[in-house]
Design a protein that fits this description.
TonB-dep_rcpt-like, 8% helix, disordered C terminus, Plug_dom_sf, receptor, TonB-dependent receptor, Maltoporin, Chain A, signal
C-alpha cells in the first residue's frame, strides 16, 4: 500500500506544470550544476560523480560499486577493475584493513546517500599503499558545502523477493572557522537465492566414482545503523584540522536449507547463523600550507576497531559453532610536497601501520584461538614534471613488512616503482603510459586454518602458509578529444593466489582452500567514451575485453577471452524530471580452476523534483529482467563440480528526499577534499 501511494504521488507530481518566476530561476541554476560530467577521465584516475544520481537513491555503497563501469564484485567479495583482480577499497583516502567478506558487509551498511564521488585508480603511484594488484577504488564521502545550518531527510521502501527499507537524516553547520556534518542512516534488507550443485568424484583413471547433488535455499536478513560525523576546523587561512568518525552496527540472520542426494541415500540439513558486526573507524587529518609557493604538509592518524561474532547451528546433527573475530588497526602517515619550479614538484612521505587480529573459534571440543599481527613501515619519494605537452611522474615506494602468523614470523622488504608518462600531441590526440609494481598480501581470513561453513556441505579453510602475490602492471592509453579512451594493458603475476576445491575425507563435504600457484599473466583492451547527443541526453559507455593465463599443473590452466560491457544513459526530460538507464553485459570468465558463466543486467530509474527543488521522489528499478543468474564449474584433481546460482534481486524502490536550510553553497575546499589531490 505504501509503495502504491508513493507511485501515485510521483504521477501526481509529473502532471503538475504550474511554475512561478522564482521557481524557474532556481531550476536554471540547478540545471547548470547537474550538467557536470558524471564520469571524468584524468591522467591518473577516473572520477565518477555519485552525489545526486538516481542510482544512489535508497541504495547501499555496495550496490553502487556493483554498477560502476568496469568494476566487478565476486560472490565472495573479491573486487576487480577492467578484468584485473585484486582491487582494494579506500574510504576518503584511508585504507580499510578488512577481509573481502567483512568489507562487503561494511559497504552494504553504508548508505550511498553519504557519497560524493568514487575514484577508480587503475595504476596508483608511489604515494599510495602498494597493496592491491588490481588498483584502488577510493570512496569519497560528502562534506557540508552550505553556510549556516542545513540538512536533509530521506526514506525509502522497496520490494524484491522480500521487502526492504531505508531511512536517514543528514545535518550540517558551516561557519567561518568550522564545518560540521552528521549523518545517521538505517537499512533493513532480506536477500534470497537458490544454488544447485552437482559434484562428481573421479577415480585416478578419471572414470566416475560417485555423484552427489545438493540443492540449497538460502535467505539472509540484515539490519544496519550507520552514524557518521565529519568536522573541519579552519585553524588559520593556511591550516586545517579534520576529524572523521564512522560507526556501523549490523545484525543478521541467515538460514540455509540443504538437500543432499547420492545414489544410495538423501539427507536434509538446516544451517542457521546469527551474526553481529561492529565497525568503528576514526581519523585525524592536519594540513598545513606554510606559504603561497605550493609547499604542503599533511599528517594523518587512523584508528579502527572491528568486531564480528557468529553463532552457527546445524540440524539435525545439533552441531554448534561460535566464531568471534576482533581486529584493531592503527596507522600514522605524513606527506610533504615541495615545488621545484612552476612546472615540477617533489613529494615524499612515510607511513606506519599495525594490525592485530584475534580469532576465537568455539566448538564442542573447546576453543581454538588464533592470533595474527602485521606491521608495515613504508616510505616513498616521487617526482613530477610538466614540460609543454609532456608530463612525467615517477616514484619509488619501499615497504618493510613484519608479520606473525600462527607463531611463524615473516619479515621482508620490497620495492615498488611506478611511472606515468603522458604526451599531448594537440587538442584531439594524446597518449599515456603507466606502469607499476603492486602486492596482494593474504587476508587474515585466508590465513585462518579454521573450517568456516559456507553451506552444510561446503566449507572454507584458510592456509597459514599462503605467500603474498606480486604483479607488474602496464597500460598504454590513447585519448581522442578527451571523449574516447582506448587502453591496452598487460599484467604479470608471481605466486598467484587462487582458491582450490578438494573433497573432504567424508566424501561428501567440499573444502575450498586458498593456495599459491606458480604465476599468471593477463591482458586487457578497454574502450570508454562519453557523448552528449543532445542537451537532454548523455551516454557513458565502456567495453573491456580481457583474458588471464595461468602457470600451473592443473587441468584447466588455459585461458578464456571475456567481455564486460556497460552503457549508462542519462536523460533530462525537463528541468524537474530526470531519468537513467543502465545495461551491463558480462561474459564468462576464468580464474584458475574456476570458470563462471556470464550474465546481464538492466537497471532504470526516474526522479521528480518537488517543493521548489527542496524535495524529490525517485523510483528505481533493479535487475528488471531477473537475469543475474550464473553458473560455475570447478575442475581440480579428481573433483568436478558444477554450480547453478539463482539470485532473486529484481526490485522496485521508491525514495523520498527533503532538504532544508537556506545557506548558500560554499566553494572553499575542505581538508578532506584537498588530500585527494596530492597525487594528481
Amino acid at each position: 500500500m505504501r509503495l502504491l501511494l508513493c507511485i501515485a504521488g510521483l504521477l501526481n507530481a509529473l502532471m503538475a506544470d504550474a511554475q512561478d518566476t522564482t521557481r524557474t530561476r532556481l531550476l536554471k541554476a540547478v540545471t547548470i550544476e547537474a550538467r557536470l560530467p558524471q564520469i571524468e577521465h584524468r591522467p591518473d584516475k577516473t572520477v565518477i560523480q555519485i552525489e545526486n544520481t538516481i542510482s544512489s537513491e535508497g541504495a547501499s555503497t555496495l550496490e553502487v560499486l556493483e554498477k560502476l563501469p568496469g568494476v566487478q564484485i565476486s560472490r565472495d567479495g573479491q573486487l576487480s577493475i577492467q578484468g584485473r583482480t585484486g582491487a582494494v577499497v579506500m574510504i576518503d583516502g584511508k585504507s580499510v584493513a578488512l577481509s573481502s567478506a567483512d568489507l562487503q558487509e561494511l559497504l552494504r551498511s553504508m548508505p550511498a546517500a553519504t557519497l560524493r564521488k568514487i575514484e577508480i585508480i587503475s595504476h596508483p603511484g608511489a604515494a599510495y599503499d602498494a597493496a592491491g594488484n588490481g588498483g584502488i577504488i577510493n570512496i569519497i564521502r560528502k562534506t557540508n558545502r552550505r553556510e549556516g545550518f542545513s540538512g536533509s531527510f530521506r526514506a525509502g521502501h522497496g520490494q524484491a523477493w522480500y521487502p526492504r527499507y531505508n531511512t536517514g537524516i543528514n545535518l550540517g553547520y558551516r561557519a567561518r572557522y568550522c564545518n560540521l556534518s552528521f549523518d545517521l542512516g538505517a537499512q533493513r534488507n532480506t536477500d534470497f537465492y537458490i544454488s544447485d550443485i552437482t559434484t562428481n568424484v573421479l577415480y585416478p583413471d578419471e572414470t566416475l566414482q560417485n555423484t552427489q547433488h545438493t540443492l540449497n535455499r538460502a535467505s539472509r536478513r540484515s539490519t544496519s545503523l550507520t552514524p557518521t560525523l565529519m568536522a573541519d576546523f579552519y585553524v588559520s587561512p593556511r591550516s586545517t584540522f579534520t576529524l572523521s568518525v564512522m560507526t556501523s552496527r549490523q545484525r543478521g540472520n541467515s538460514q540455509v536449507y540443504s538437500l543432499l542426494r547420492t545414489a544410495t541415500d538423501s539427507q536434509t540439513v538446516i544451517n542457521t547463523t546469527d551474526n553481529q558486526q561492529s565497525n568503528n573507524l576514526s581519523s585525524l587529518h592536519w594540513q598545513l600550507r606554510p606559504d603561497s609557493s605550493g609547499r604542503q604538509l599533511t599528517v594523518d592518524a587512523d584508528f579502527a576497531h572491528y568486531l564480528s561474532s557468529a553463532l552457527r547451528n546445524t540440524e539435525p546433527d545439533t552441531v554448534r559453532l561460535t566464531q568471534e573475530r576482533r581486529l584493531q588497526f592503527c596507522a600514522l602517515k605524513a606527506d610533504y610536497i615541495l615545488p621545484q619550479g612552476p612546472h615540477s614538484y617533489l613529494s615524499a612521505g612515510f607511513k606506519y601501520s599495525n594490525v592485530d587480529i584475534r580469532n576465537d573459534n568455539g566448538h564442542d571440543n573447546g576453543h581454538d584461538i588464533i592470533r595474527n599481527k602485521e606491521n608495515i613501515l613504508a616510505g616513498y619519494l616521487a617526482y613530477s614534471r610538466s614540460q609543454g605537452a609532456l608530463r612525467l611522474q615517477a616514484g619509488l615506494r619501499a615497504e618493510q613488512t613484519h608479520s606473525n602468523i600462527q607463531q611463524t614470523t615473516y619479515s621482508y622488504l620490497q620495492l615498488f616503482p611506478s611511472l606515468l608518462a603522458a604526451y599531448t600531441f594537440n587538442e584531439r590526440h594524446s597518449l599515456q603510459f603507466k606502469c607499476n609494481r603492486r602486492i596482494d598480501r593474504p587476508s587474515y581470513a585466508q590465513l585462518n586454518p579454521f573450517r568456516y561453513p559456507l553451506s552444510p556441505f561446503l566449507y572454507f579453510m584458510g592456509n597459514p602458509q599462503l605467500q603474498p602475490q606480486t604483479a607488474f602492471n602496464n597500460a598504454l592509453t590513447y585519448s581522442w578529444r578527451q571523449a574516447v579512451f582506448i587502453t591496452i594493458g598487460y599484467d604479470l603475476y608471481q605466486k598467484y593466489i587462487t582458491t582450490l576445491p578438494t573433497l573432504d575425507t567424508d566424501q561428501k563435504t567440499v573444502l575450498r582452500t586458498p593456495a599459491n600457484i606458480a604465476g599468471a599473466s593477463a591482458w586487457n583492451i578497454d574502450i570508454s567514451f562519453t557523448k552528449e547527443w543532445a542537451p537532454w541526453w548523455t551516454t557513458d559507455g565502456e567495453m573491456t575485453i580481457y583474458s588471464r593465463q595461468f602457470t600451473s599443473d592443473f587441468s584447466q590452466a588455459g585461458s578464456t577471452i571475456s567481455l564486460d560491457l556497460s552503457c549508462n544513459q542519462q536523460f533530462r526530460i525537463t528541468h524537474q524530471l530526470q531519468a537513467e538507464c543502465q545495461i551491463r553485459i558480462v561474459s564468462g570468465q576464468q580464474d584458475a580452476t574456476t570458470i563462471n558463466s556470464g550474465y546481464y543486467l538492466v537497471h532504470a530509474g526516474i526522479r521528480q523534483q518537488l517543493f521548489r527543488q527542496a524535495g524529490s521522489i525517485a523510483v528505481r528499478l533493479s535487475n528488471i529482467l531477473q537475469s543475474e543468474d550464473e553458473a560455475a564449474r570447478y575442475h581440480y584433481d579428481r573433483l568436478r563440480q558444477y554450480r547453478q546460482l539463482s539470485f532473486f534481486t529484481r526490485a522496485i524502490q521508491v525514495n523520498f528526499t527533503y532538504r532544508f536550510g537556506k545557506g548558500k553553497s560554499q566553494s572553499k575546499t575542505t581538508a578532506t577534499q584537498e588530500e585527494q589531490k596530492r597525487a594528481e
